[in-house]
Amino acid sequence: MKQHSNNTASPTAEQASEKNTAPGYPQTRMRRLRGSTWMRGMVAENELKPADLIWPAFILEDADKVEPVSTMPGVERLGIEKLVTKAQEAQELGVSAIALFPVVPPSKKTDRGDESVNPMNLICNAVKRIRDAAPDIGIITDVALDPYTTHGHDGILHDDKIANDETVEILCEQALNQARAGADIIAPSDMMDGRVGAIRKALDNEGFEDVAIMSYAAKYASCFYGPFRDAVGSKAALKGDKKTYQMNPANSDEALREVELDIREGADMVMVKPGMPYLDIVRRVKEKFSVPTFAYQVSGEYAMLRHAANEGCFDFDTALMESLLGFKRAGCNGILSYGAIDAAKLLKA
Ligand code: PBG
What we know:
This protein starts with 12 loop residues before the first helix and ends with a helix. Strand 10 (269-273), helix 9 (279-288) and strand 11 (293-297) form a beta-alpha-beta unit. By secondary structure, it is of the alpha/beta class. An eight-stranded parallel β-barrel has the order 1-4-5-8-9-10-11-12, surrounded by nine helices. Strands 6-7 form a two-stranded antiparallel sheet. It has one domain (47-348): TIM Barrel (Alpha-Beta Barrel). It is globular, with a radius of gyration of 23 Å. The chain has helices at residues 13-18, 37-42, 80-93, 122-133, 164-181, 195-205, 226-232, 253-265, 279-288, 299-310, 316-330, 340-348; strands at residues 53-60, 66-68, 76-79, 97-102, 138-143, 157-158, 161-162, 185-188, 212-219, 269-273, 293-297, 334-337. Helix 3 (80-93) packs across helix 4 (122-133), helix 4 (122-133) packs parallel to helix 5 (164-181) and helix 5 crosses helix 6 (195-205). The longest helix is centred in the middle third of the chain and has 18 residues, at 164-181. It binds ligand PBG. The site of ligand PBG has 12 residues, from helix 7. Ligand PBG binds next to helix 7.
């Protein structure tokens, strides 16, 4: 390439226009770094790895049963025997953790969600079984009353209003119940005020200092949870919406306040939820705090990818991997995704 006679490294605008090229051209050829697979790999800024992935699973009481979730093609509710096999597969693939959600039969639901504190409940049994069968995978349990309440809300209702502090007391019992069963990470998804601090204190008082808390810190009142509520059977039951405790999708400063409070109260890790429509929140959280940050690619997001792929809009695997990489680029340390096992398999292939 012919050098310019003056001393400047790149051509002046005038010189460039004489040559009918943009300033900087041809020194800056961005495409040089995209020419081959190895080059693209060498200069890649972000990478998705199996350890970034957390797999959310729905558990059925009937141990050998497998039940498809009609609103989430590709996702099944699993009895414990089937779930154990999947947990072993996930462990084998290097998935970090499994997040457990129970499908509680209507006969066990009450106004106050009493089954949540039963030491023999579905979650506690599943934790014990998975702990034995797949000792190297993390076990995350959800703290909130919605799978257990007749009204489908995450807390206790008085005159159709959520009683925050009374709910927090039961949530502490629920968290202890899960810790006693062997959960590694307690994940409060209820969005009550003050619950992280109260749960931390309850855990410490019983000697569970090493049980971590991943708080659903910035959890929005989102329609993207629809298929999940269908999967755990809280949809039909749910009266009204969750807007008095989950966040307004219009807000992002508020998410930073939520995260800050949870960190102060003792959260070891925080989560933003949903994921794809809220990646700006992940970025802001990551820039302001140095705490490990996760996002939940929720049921409706997974369903969107599946349905679009089924309609021939794109290839599911490719769309899943691109979406998960987007979370990494936004700053996530990890992602909860119903596609975690699929993605880990693709990473291995
Ligand atoms: C319940 C809970 C919800 C999800 C996780 N925990 C639903 C809700 O808040 O109504 C949603 C997960 C998903 O949609 O995949 N506290």
